Amino acid sequence: MSQRETPAYILAIDQGTTSSRAMLFDHDGSVVGIAQREFPQLFPQPGWVEHDPRDILASVRSTIVEVLTKTQVSAAYIAGIGMTNQRETAVVWDRHTGQAIYNAVVWQSRQTVAICEQLKAGGYASLVRERTGLLIDAYFSATKIAWILDHVDGARQRAARGELLFGTIDSWLIWNLSEHRTHVTDVSNASRTLLYDIHRRRWCPDLLAMLDIPAVMLPEVRSSSEVYAHTDPAQFFGQRIPIAGVAGDQQAALFGQACFEPGMAKNTYGTGCFLLMNTGTRAVRSEHGLLTTLAWDVDGQTEYALEGSIFVAGSAVQWLRDGLRMLDTAPESESYAERVPSTDGVYCVPAFVGLGAPYWRSDVRGALFGLTRGTRKEHFVRAVLESLAYQTRDVLDAMQVDAGLTLKALRADGGAIGNAFLAQFQADILDVTLARPTVRETTALGAAYLAGLAVGFWESRAQIARQWQVEREFTPRMDPARREALYAGWRQAVQAVLAFTPPNNLT
Length: 507
Ligand SMILES: Nc1ncnc2c1ncn2[C@@H]1O[C@H](COP(=O)(O)OP(=O)(O)O)[C@@H](O)[C@H]1O
Ligand SMILES: O=P(O)(O)OC[C@H](O)CO
Prior knowledge:
The chain has 16 helices and 23 strands. It has 507 residues and is α+β, with helices and mostly antiparallel strands. A hairpin with a 5-residue loop joins strand 2 and strand 3 (31-38). The radius of gyration is 22 Å and the shape is globular. It starts with 8 loop residues before the first strand and ends in an 8-residue tail after the last helix. The structure holds adenosine-5'-diphosphate and SN-glycerol-3-phosphate. It catalyses: glycerol + ATP = sn-glycerol 3-phosphate + ADP + H(+).
């Protein structure tokens, strides 16, 4: 092993739904370099979304090489690695060969809807709610694991014999990059599996029994900020670098946005939209379709969050670009939207994989409303962008009731919030100031902070909170009557979507 230099950077790996990023941060929390790579999305059947775990690993490895090459930073200067990931997505692999036995079943995938229906019919809803803070939905990992075990020949027997391992993407990556094939996850990722008791903080035997998942498959659950393993020098430039921070990407963004006080909230506008509010050491139970989840465990303190998960947000813009070929690039949507003063009464409900929070209806489909002969592409694009803001309002309204407070400011991040039209419309429709930070890569930054705290690169959360800086604030300026009239139209559109049952077996 080569000599370790005085480490000056933290490397963050952000493994997202559509792309992987590797980023280097310096001591000020500033971005020193970034590399990003998209990887294939697999849609084997309508409503199914899968990834090849090898593609994920390859994209991560190549972005690490690229960021170090671009910045000319030697791996010897990396103090620690923070890992953050698309959550819930499930991988099952052979502990001896390291080969995944099936594709990664992605969080958006609906292939386990039938298993969920069986669980609901079996009366498991309250057990799940009470133990995990979640509800029975194909979104979470547990039914995806069961589905893989049921659909791969001999998998149940191999799992029972202890030959197979399960992991969310953080576990898959750490197992592959670490020196001794360490099989771990952190509390925030565990809390999205539907198998983890968020109050007692352990895998729940009743839930494992519910789906016949052997405990021997599961990773060890650790805090979000500690040294879990060191990189394998053979595949990491001769360096044993501590992997020292792990969190699911939405919790990492909450950390990176320095939302450390109860009542502070962030919304991430990526593939989906995820609005999380810190509720401190209290696990707040939602009565309005939100999730109670573990935010992180740092310095021996476990904190919780309320979450509204919106399944389709930036991916609706991607659909405009790739599916309908209405756009050449996603950012172009901004100028189209601004070319018209309104959608002219057009609404788009992008329920392409059903609806998540606060509706939780996996059986519904997307729809367009209010079309006339005068409807143009500009109206259509604007309606899609506005749908991100309306979905966020649905969630935030529910959250304010659940948490019993009125939010004054919301911190925003994610690729789509680069869109200034969307950011302003969001502030208008919520009647809340939206703050966009200087470092918009808050997911990666959060993971970097978690790792940096564990290795002494940063001292405290107070220091991190001081580093958070606003780049631009969007203040509400819409007339209240217009705001409520627009939102009432959205509510009607959603009700219509909920009422429409598509006929079965039509091809
Ligand atoms: N300027 C923009 N306006 C609207 N949507 C955008 C813009 N830039 C990116 N997007 C959308 O945001 C998503 C990418 O955001 P990102 O945070 O990278 O997502 P993820 O981490 O989920 O892969 C894509 O779905 C893309 O269509
Ligand atoms: O990959 P993202 O950023 O869209 O995040 C996905 C979420 O973690 C799914 O719960």
